[in-house]
Amino acid sequence: MGKNYMVIGLGRLGTSIVKELSLHTKDIIGVDVDEACVNQVSEYIEQCFVCDSTKKRILEEIGAKNIDHAVVAIGNNLQATILTTINLKELGVKYITVRVDDSEYSNVLERLGADEVLIPEDDAGRQYAKQILSDTMLDYYSIDQEHAIVQIAIPHDFEEHSLLELDYRNKYDINIVGIIRSGKFFLPKGSDTIKPLDAILVVGRNLKITKFDKAING
Questions:
Q1: 199 in helix, strand or coil?
Q2: Domains of the chain (ranges plus CATH)?
Q3: pLDDT tens-digit map of 143-180
Q4: pTM of the predicted model, to two decimals?
């Protein structure tokens, strides 16, 4: 069963995360105190709420207890960010990512319950959404709106195959441009194999890379 997500704060960063996630899953809840912000994402996701995330009871009522991954993207309201993070932690959310504009507060938020602190840059929302969709996508580098370079982890129970055997170009229309093994990088040839616990660099269309990742990692 796939993960479910909650994005709290639907400004530019939060909206870009919602848009990207919605291409891959329907299990997303959007939250903001501003009705206009909620309305702008309603075309992408079905579950949107105008509410105050600093109130734990409200978060509980909209299903925060069942969330696997919450992203707090409130922005420049540090007090709301802190209270929301504490609420999510107390409600048992499995993984909490918090956007903060000043890295000075990163340690504070981590002590209060954030598993990860995100300091946004241009295009950060779309890129970060790619990473949280898959535990096995270790890094994501956007080339354009449709293409990317992604580092994918190979699971420990993967059955060793050569690149020729995988036939990844014909099956998935992607390219494997690098293999990282025991911390060392090399450019692969067709006869080279992919082994358990390797990491591979994949280039291609976003949807094709996601399909390949699911085939490799289940």
A1: strand
A2: 5-132 (3.40.50.720), 136-217 (3.30.70.1450)
A3: 666 777 788 889 999 999 999 998 988 999 998 988 99
A4: 0.64
